[in-house]
Structure prediction request, 678 residues.
Amino acid sequence: MTTTIVLQQAINGVVFGSLYVLVALGLTLIYGVLVQINFAHADFVTLGAFAAYFFMHLIGAGYILSIGVAFLVGAALGWLINASIFTPLRRKGNELLPLIATIGVSVMMQNLMLAWFGPIPYAFETQYSSQVIRFAGIFVSWQNIIIIAVSSVTIALLYAFMKFTFLGKALRAVSQDRETAGLMGINPNYLIMLTFVIASALAGMAGAMLAPVLVLTPFAGTSVIVKAFAIVIIGGFGNVEGTILAGLIVGLIESYTTQFLDPGLIDIVVFALLLLMLAIKPTGLIAERREENV
Amino acid sequence: MTVTFRALVAGVAAVGFLAASQATYAQDKTIKIGALFPMSGPGSYFGAQDKQGVELALEQLNKDGVNGYKFVVQYEDSSCAPLPATQAAKRLIEQFKPDVIIGEECSDATLAVMPIVEQAKVPLLNAGSSSIKVTEPGNPWTFRIMPNEVMQGVNLAENAYKRINARNAVLLFENTNAGIGNGQVFKENFTRLGGKVLAEIGFGRDVNDFTAIATRIAGLGKIDVIPTYTLEGQGLKITQALAQAGITKGGGGDAIQIGTIWLPFGFEQKAGKAALGYIRIVQFDPTDTRNVVKDFITTFKAKYNADPTHLNAHAYDQIMLIADVVKRGGKDPQSIRDGLAATKNYSGVTGSVEFDKTNQNTKMDTVHYMETKPDMSWTSLKWN
Prediction:
């Protein structure tokens, strides 16, 4: 009985942890390259969710395809907003302006979505939500299996991209020392754009997978973004491996806190861990190497 | 020529004076209603549906007016939370200077607004907050037409025990005044009758994943009823998670989800077959055969091409009750307050209204039970 529950909660934790990782990876990528927090990231998640919803319900497409569409919508929007808002502000040389602009973009996107989609929660049901596999007291829906599978493949591909491709290595070089990377012939502006596109695409994809799980309203993304920030800090700001590890840990903490303590204590436990991490190991679980120019 | 010109000027001046007098008269003969509705955040579905009910009532009332008065409404976003609600109430009172205020929906927001309306001496007519604290001890300026958490909770616990034959319950509630209060009232009355509460599980409005909660409930043994107190969005996810875990009827289990006035009509279609067997109190019964209900449904469908929800209905009732008070002589905050207090057997769409000394509506015909059927439609249980 107890083993079954422990195992079941582990599955629950991994499912939600995977979603947190996808959201947090975008944040950590942008921070790693730009040393900037993107407060509008949550709204890219929400827009991805709505893109998938309308692609499914208006066109009648399948859920898996709609995840791909949300990925592309996120990527396109990331490119558009970076090119039209963040890049011109960054050129002015004041690092505070793009940071404030992310707050402005967030408020604008939330209100635009509120005007377009209305405040009433959408029911985003897929054919996989109600299909449940039951085995030896354990249950898992096909929806959750898809979440774990798509998240794992995406995370693995991103990891491989960062570790083994030229562009990935260039991104890491820019995140470690932007000026020296520029002297080596790397175009930082191009890589910043690429970072925004990848981060926003991941957010859009996360939205498509979160939508059937969370309550789909124009404010849906904000409900996970605070946890995503905590995960980025616990994992080590800017570090991909640390973010993956921290995301899974937070997912498991949520499940086991619900089981053995109280769901009302989840935030207390997660943010106590965050404070503990800041006090004991402020660089996070895995510290990102970064050169300080003096 | 000069005389004619002077006469013309005098005539124009007289007409202008009369027009100005009429304008002043028309301006004076307006009842200003401030509306504190959640327009953003997780409770924003309340505001959207409330506004529809208000607009329908205004359209009907302003055709001919009431006692020479027309009605104007100013909406403010109170966000279902104390801080934005108090800011919105202050904005309304300082800038719009309303004769009466309607709203909020969420108890925490209403409780925060009550001292402000009391200080400003503007009556607040509430139709959506269930916390007992709204009327006990309450204040002379706040009135509530919906049944409070005790009226609903006592009734729900008795029906769960006697009609559903439930003996074991698990409470699920959001950690707000209304959520906790509703849960406690059920617990006290259900255990008093001999029932047992196996677990009380509270959660914040930011909780997304209810699979973990459903897993915990699945490990608690035999459960008959799961009283659930949460907003629509989280309510959907809870219902689906309970079915996925095989706990409720919708997932092949035995437990029945029950609840008080939190969820609008249309919830069952969104939740899908997971909602099978869900029994809940609604504030408005579309199968009610009274003319006021039939007329409301007809005019609502004509205006919005949709079936009305209980939120549409109770917002409509708030405006219509104010109009009734104006008909009885209400014209400013004090007389509207006194008129509300003197209301006897007012028949609204959601039921009848008559306030006790705490300004709580005492009529139980506002409590309607419905059960979700296998085809995701619902049936009225006629338990009251």
